[in-house]
Model the fold of this input.
Amino acid sequence: MAETLIALDRISKHYVRGKEKIEVLHELSLNIEQGDFLALMGPSGSGKTTLLNLIGGLDQPSAGTITVSGQRIDTLSGGRLAQWRARNVGFVFQFYNLLPVLTAAQNVELPLLLTHLSKSERARRVQIALTVVGLEDRAKHKPSELSGGQAQRVAIARALVADPTLLVCDEPTGDLDRKTADEVLGLLQTLNREHGKTLIMVTHDPRAAEYAGHQLHMDKGRLIEAGAQA
Done:
């Protein structure tokens, strides 16, 4: 039986805009198992990205508890939460967020600069991460010298380089053509199935969601249905 990696218990999130209180998530409870590949789907404004940000420790809930690997993260201070993210979560975004002045290898190395690893160990991990995504021969190329698909693979290598427990992906193929998107999604699926990574992916694209093991649909801050792929 798979172990629960992430447990959300009655999570709510609201923002205050002037005198208006805007509810984004409403007492949402969810368990995510170790090794799952979960696609979060729903219309714009349904709360998908907010939920992803809470799970990844980029934001904190207004109410409720979030436990990851047995540790409550909703009560961590800003500094401790940043340390937790650096050790446990890799992020993949729609627009890559690569620094244009750095090479692919230097971009991948960035998360490791926050660690106490030696330069040689950082270089070893960067090489492994680029090899996993099939870009070891592009290590010295800058983002302007890469295709969109290659740039996203570099971003995935950067997310992987610290060997995190969890990968969170926010519309990772939203800026890619269909063929390139399928290649990137195939890579994410391989990371899940062959490398045992737990992935949570926000997507508007039903075809992208088919690569995941499970789909959760959201609307107006609530889970409205769940499905599993064969």
